[in-house]
Amino acid sequence: MVPLSYYLVLSAILFACGVVGFLIKRNIITIFMSIELMLNAVNLTFVAFAAELRALSGHVFVFFVMVVAAAEAAVGLAIIISVFRTRETLNVDRVNLLKL
Amino acid sequence: MSLHLWIIPLLPLAGAAINGLLGKRFPKAVVDAIALGSTAAAFLYALWVAVQFFRLPADQIPHIERYATWMTAGTFSAEYGIYLDQLSLVMLLIVTGVGFLIHVYSVGYMEHEGGYYRFFAYLNIFMFFMLTLVLANNYLLMFVGWEGVGLASYLLIGFWFLKDSAANAGKKAFITNRVGDFGFLIALFLLIKHFGTLQYDTVFKAVSAYPVETSAGLLTAIGLLMLFGATGKSAQIPLYVWLPDAMEGPTPVSALIHAATMVTAGVYMVARSNAVFDRAPIALMAVAVIGTLTAIFAASIGILQTDIKKVLAYSTISQLGYMFMGCGVAAYGAGIFHLMTHAFFKALLFLSAGAIIHGLGGEQDMRHMGGLRKYMPKAFWCMTIATFTIAGFPLLAAFFSKDEILWKTWASGNHILWLIGVVAAGMTSFYMFRLWFLTFFGEYRGELATDAGHGHDSHDAHGEHGHAGPHESPMIMIVPLMILALLCIVGGWVGWPRVLAGSDLFDHFLDPVFTTYAPAPAATEAVSGHEEERGTEIALMFISVAAATIGGLGAWYLYYKRTDLPARMAAAAGGLYTFVLDKYKVDEFYGAAIIQPIILISTNVLWKGVDTAVIDGAVNESAAGAQDISDGLRQMQSGNIRSYAGWVAFGAAVVIAFMVWRGVR
User: Fold this and answer.
1) CB–CB of A96 and B638 under 8 A?
2) Nearest 5 degrees, angle CA B249-CA B125-CA B20?
3) By three-state DSSP, how is residue B527 classified?
């Protein structure tokens, strides 16, 4: 059996990839994918612990996260399309209306 | 049995409220009806109360009515209540009676003035506070009245507030009074600290358990502080300076507040606190000395004043000095007696002076008067009676009261004070007859000088009179004068002394007030009917009448017979003359010694130092600091999503690091 620490390390690496991708990428789509990556890193942690501790709640949480992620993807993609329509770009550095 | 005494102060208050809030729209007749009606009702009710009072059995005097608790703080509590004994009854009748007459007079005097309703509202509110002062059954309620009359006084002195001098005089009166009030307040604090209450009956009872203090102690301190308060309200040395300036107010105000009633509050307070003063001989002596000094000091200033109202103002201060002198030798009855007669003759003097001023279209300088006997005979006769009364001519009111004070002073062994008092009596007579001769005799000197720009009193408002020459005042002003003149003549008869086959009725009437809580020895020594003393008393009477006659004759010689002499004498006296004319430069001295330093300190330390640098500085600096910090923090909000994400990641890292470091619980 694969030890728990392997899962956790993999999860941490995936999460770090997500964070780095989020921070350095400029394309909104890529950033969005980075977010999904982070979510799934967390999901991996959940199922790893669920298997280790033999508790169902971890699995349930994963389903919840997936549902939320799906909803978020729907809303997020809609926003992205809307942004692209109005500003003709997907570069986040140029979508900076929220500053003072 | 309740006499419902609360109605008395409430009547003028209601009048003041109605006139003050709504009077602007009322015609004058309605304002008159409300103001006069409420005062007249108060006076009539007071008369009814007086009748009831005489029916009360002796054990129900003082008659105390308690209505409600005003405030409670720990064990201390003060209540709304009324304390009616012989002393407050006398004061009640004086205040409502003289007050009503002056209200009537004001209708005529203020006829052409703006702010007519405002004037009567102020007069009524003054009546309310004065009645509160004299009727209160504890010191705290008395203090309410005490402050209230100060307020009314301020409002009325500054009635013509567009005139700078009037506004300043109002402020001066109020602030000077506040200085005295400070002493009074400290006295009250001492009373609370040591007796736990300010109710008259409890305090006096507690005080009467104390022995007479041979050296300075608690009661001496209380007495001296009360005296300090009284010097403010009653215009004694050192706080008398506000009263002459208070003549900026309309003349009826001078008559009502600054002569007949309010300024006697200090005398009333001293007499009311006789239980304290009787046991504090040092404080009592201070009262007598201050009174006597004030009497002669003010009289000497009065001699050279040229403004008719200023003469009367200094005369008021001087007469108040007599009252203090009387109280100071523990002859409270004599002091109150003089208070009463003074209320009559000084109100008459002021109102007659007001009639003259009114008739001359606002002229107050006696150098521009003269010969007015022809033009206003009624005012002349009233003034004559008042002048003879204040000078102390036999059988007139002040003769009895002033001589009683002087006699009691002599009998108490203070022969020096008595001598000063007699000299002051001579001076009183001199300056009053000087006023009388300057005003009514000789030739009228007004035509040439009336346009000299003396914007005194109601000068402007009387413009419609023009200066068609002096004229008599309307009947509504003359009738109160006549009533007061009558009182000047007969008012003193209630105190007809025993040596002149009278019965000292007034003294005996007041006796219960001053003997109930008196220390044991004082009660026994109050006998003055010995044969050898009768001779002395009569001799002293002759001496003071002689002093008054000499003063009067001196005035006659200088200001009637040889009118060239005063100017030559003034020239001969030189510096001394101007020194006295400048009122001994007391105002200047106070200005240099107290007011200037206070202004300097206030400007340089309190304003520029404390206020601007410290308080403003703290506020401004904290505001500026907040802005600086915000300026820095604001840079974080760049609008760049990735920098936000970076902060989030950084924050998460910090939280995780913290949890790892502390261990997860």
Assistant:
1) yes
2) 90
3) coil
Express each pLDDT in B405-431 by its tens digit.
Answer: 998 898 888 889 999 999 999 999 999
Q: How far apart are CA A5 and CA B134, in angstroms?
A: 95
- For chain B, how many residues are written? 665
- Dmax over CA atoms of chain A, in Å, equals 54
Residues 6+ apart with CB under 8 A from B262: B126, B130, B149, B152, B153, B233, B256
Q: What is the ipTM of this complex?
A: 0.75
Return the sign of the alpha-carbon dihedral for residues B114, B365, B338, B494: negative
Q: Does domain A4-94 have CATH number 2.40.360.10?
A: no
Contacts of B639 in chain A (CB under 8 A): 96-100
Whole-angstrom CA distances from B535 to B286, B396, B421, B499, B511 are 29, 21, 20, 9, 24
Which residue(s) pair with A27 in the sheet? A91
- For residues B474 and B568, what is the distance between their CA atoms, to the nearest angstrom? 39
**Which chain B residues touch A96 with a CB distance below 8 Å?**
638-641
Do residue B639 and residue A97 have CB atoms under 8 angstroms apart? Answer: yes
Contacts of A98 in chain B (CB under 8 A): 639
* DSSP 3-state percent helix, strand, coil across chain B (nearest 5): 75, 5, 20
First to last CA, chain B: 79
- pTM confidence score: 0.79
Query: pLDDT digit string (tens) for B106-139?
Result: 998 888 888 889 999 999 999 999 999 999 999 9
- Could you give the CA distance from residue A36 to residue A28 in angstroms, rounded to a whole number? 12
Phi, psi of B363 (to 5 degrees): -75, 130
Alpha-carbon gap, residue A15 to A6, rounded angstroms: 14
CB B235 within 8 A of CB B320: yes
- CB-side exposure of B354: number of CA atoms within 13 Å? 29
